[in-house]
Design brief:
Blueprint: H1 10-20, H2 46-70, H3 73-78, H4 88-115, H5 155-163
Length: 167
Amino acid sequence: MEDTRSVNSPRRTLSFSKNRRATVSFPDPDDKVSGIDGSGDHGPKSSEVYGFVGSISTVVATVVFMVWAYVPEQWLHSISISYYPSRYWALAVPAYAMVTIVLAVGFYIGLNFMATPPPTSFNTMFDECSREPLNSIHSTDEDKQPIEPISDIAIKRINQLMFCDHS
């Protein structure tokens, strides 16, 4: 004897799920019922600490760079700072960084153009994941049609729908 819960089509599965009316709730990890968190984690997350330290370090490094690049040498010597890199690097490092970024973006775009097949290639329409539509779909119920399996739409069908005169 066949089980009444056996499923022959996706449409029948949907009808079972409509009859059940189950409710699903997902607990929110940030929602705390009581004031005490049972997991034992207290304090800020490590990503928050790294973000804070990174932002403060960036601001400090920017201020030190600006002081080194723009303050005259006599002022630096008066506060007994005598060992620092040449002022040439104040212009060279940002220029080198910008040129490196521009070349990296250009190289990335070039690699994408090399990896992309030409527009006339059939590889732009078909690949290893392409699926032809199935022609034989057997239905057990006359009034209910099963949901068709996932497949690609043929290019002839798309051209017919888009460019044929339907009047």
